[in-house]
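FAQ
Q: What does a multi-component entry look like?
A: The components come first, one per line:
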Amino acid sequence: MKTFTLPGTELVVPNVVLGLMRIAEMSDDDVRHLVRTARDAGIDFVDHADIYGGDHGCERRFAEAMRLTPSQRAEIVIQSKAGIVPGAGGLRYDFSYDHLVGQVDGSLAALGTDYLDILLLHRPDALVEPEEVARAFDDLASAGKVRYFGVSNHTPGQIELLKKYVTQPLVANQLQLSITHASLIAQGVSANMAGEDQAVDRDGGVLDYCRLHDITIQAWSPFQAGFFTGVFLGSPDHPELNAVIDRLAAAYDVPPIAVATAWITRHPAQMQVVLGTTTPERVTGAAQGSDLPLTRAEWYELFRAAGHLVP
Amino acid sequence: MKTFTLPGTELVVPNVVLGLMRIAEMSDDDVRHLVRTARDAGIDFVDHADIYGGDHGCERRFAEAMRLTPSQRAEIVIQSKAGIVPGAGGLRYDFSYDHLVGQVDGSLAALGTDYLDILLLHRPDALVEPEEVARAFDDLASAGKVRYFGVSNHTPGQIELLKKYVTQPLVANQLQLSITHASLIAQGVSANMAGEDQAVDRDGGVLDYCRLHDITIQAWSPFQAGFFTGVFLGSPDHPELNAVIDRLAAAYDVPPIAVATAWITRHPAQMQVVLGTTTPERVTGAAQGSDLPLTRAEWYELFRAAGHLVP
Amino acid sequence: MKTFTLPGTELVVPNVVLGLMRIAEMSDDDVRHLVRTARDAGIDFVDHADIYGGDHGCERRFAEAMRLTPSQRAEIVIQSKAGIVPGAGGLRYDFSYDHLVGQVDGSLAALGTDYLDILLLHRPDALVEPEEVARAFDDLASAGKVRYFGVSNHTPGQIELLKKYVTQPLVANQLQLSITHASLIAQGVSANMAGEDQAVDRDGGVLDYCRLHDITIQAWSPFQAGFFTGVFLGSPDHPELNAVIDRLAAAYDVPPIAVATAWITRHPAQMQVVLGTTTPERVTGAAQGSDLPLTRAEWYELFRAAGHLVP
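Then the predicted structure of the entire assembly, as tokens:
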């Protein structure tokens, strides 16, 4: 497992991390097996959110299953998120002081820990008041409840607005990225091309921005074809892509999921891949992509096979 | 009426202002009634443009109907715009020194005043030479003809280019914004989503940029569904949205137009709503939305009811 | 021929330059005639790329046909590009140190010269490591192999990322631009308009960015309707545009191609037009657009006639 010091922090982190959004219904044994498998693969970083599994459900499930001692807890990086509020009529977002601080308290209680290593703002609140976020972060930091802060699904402009008041470095931006859902990479390859959907800017150039400012991109849904529409690995909807993946997997003697992982870890932005699977073998397989040295030719072949234009 | 000191100026302004683009054919009495109604509601800020009602037609109509004494004129903020040139074959834009200075002189003559409080560049001139704009602004400012400057329909990049030479602060950016025509808010909520039109960047992140740089956004066509395609209020094309508006209007005991106004004034960017109506009752109704304290849940419910995705 | 000192350099350059991507199969005489015609028109700037005509084919063809003495070579500005790698399955990009330095060496050998005046990174490499580019540029500059550096088809974010490490000024950005393929101008005219394709950001505001940072835009495919889909000049697909072009050409007593050229040279960004033609008469005709003083009304009429919205 390749590790690196997360810029802006003193944390040494793996470039493949374990997302726990789907563990709410798992047994203690299954959770322990999943986490143990990840740890064995070198993954000592878990990704939570207050809303995963309902009201802190996955955080609580994790804590109850793992029953970590303080020293065990200190061995891992625990990241959680706040800012999304489910409701009867649909979602809303809330970055108010009270909501953020309250949700972190809820996460700490559910996780049975004194601190989060990293707190991410889950999705940009259209009604954000950056002064309030700054106040919340200051209080969470000074109370020792959160060590580092970041965002998720944020554009450069939204981050700049936060930074007008937030003094802590924003160390991560968790964004949807897979070989097939790759606009944040593909747009820049084909900018300024009339009539090409791939040329359409959907993120304000967030990849270059994050690289420029040493904000680590965490790729969520790394194997999803679209927005929770199913995985592309093995899907008959992506025959050309899977053919290339399978060929490279055979050549490198790894499972296909390792190649899909490596397509992200190979990128020089030094991203982290957030696994969403609850299947231990997939975790092991994906971990094999942590340091797989895809060549430029292979990386671009995968990119083209996913349907992206290389003009 | 909620008021605030317009950042970059010493003007105390209301967050709902009276746009006068449609008064060219109104009688003196009707103009006076409209303006008096606005003043009674606390609206002491009028929005003009050289081209409204033809060649300074609305500016002249306003002046002839109001016949303001110097002290009456000093009580209100008069904003006008220049830069659009109608022509037989279509519009063009012109930010040349001669055009800008000449149009301001024309506006001052038509308005019967010595100065504009604010001059906006109406639409970005593709052939802009920022050095010329700077020279025009300098001369207009030093001659006492214009107190403050701003833009309309400008992107962050266009503003940055102007600021390379313009030394006065650009205090306002007038942009189309309503619950339904809300890309400048909605894009940021769904950035980086493949296949979603809402994710498409159409403005370079102008909302965050203006907040970051203390440029006040003025929302034009605040009740229009699209680009002058008709209002959404009461329209059978927007049943879900109107149902929510009507319910909230009843709950707050205000007319529906106040809720539509409040959706904009509630936003923490502290925008101004530019009314385009010539109906006094609508002005009164909209003014009731100046300080209506929509909750986050209500604001997001309106947003979703207008068809925007909250992923 | 209008000339100007290319910002960031000591080069005095024409605003119309000769692109040599299509000379691979031309005879010595034809190449010499083409270049002589350009020189007679004041065009002393040629645009190459390593991949034009295959592996340095056009560069070699140029050198073999011209057999320039050192003093003749010093009379002209030679620009080339690197970074695109053709392959059996499609293109890829490669901004690695070894590739860039190797390709420049190949270009120098093919061109029979000791130095390139300008080297452009041809298309953005998704796997760019700006530290490597910086190292390559440093070594190429200190070895005297390249005098100045620039990019092609790059967005503002990509340029900013390069500038994080590259210390030389990036003096040019070669981008596709013609009256019909004009998103980089047209988007800004109609930003924030829902439902209008013209409002869609495809380049991150590269025009304003380049003007702001004194990066000269070089317009490639200046007469192409789309992405190598054929020229619009004289095309029955563009009757309205050609009618305006022909009328203006007659009025100014120049060929239509001069008007199409002037639409670009008239823009205050002081761009260069990169001709792709191998027909000497077209070069002569285009050169007549170098300093043609289109009025604002004429420029906008051409813009509207090409189908762009001026709202």
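Q: Is there any commentary attached?
A: Sometimes. For this entry: The radius of gyration of chain A is 19 Å.
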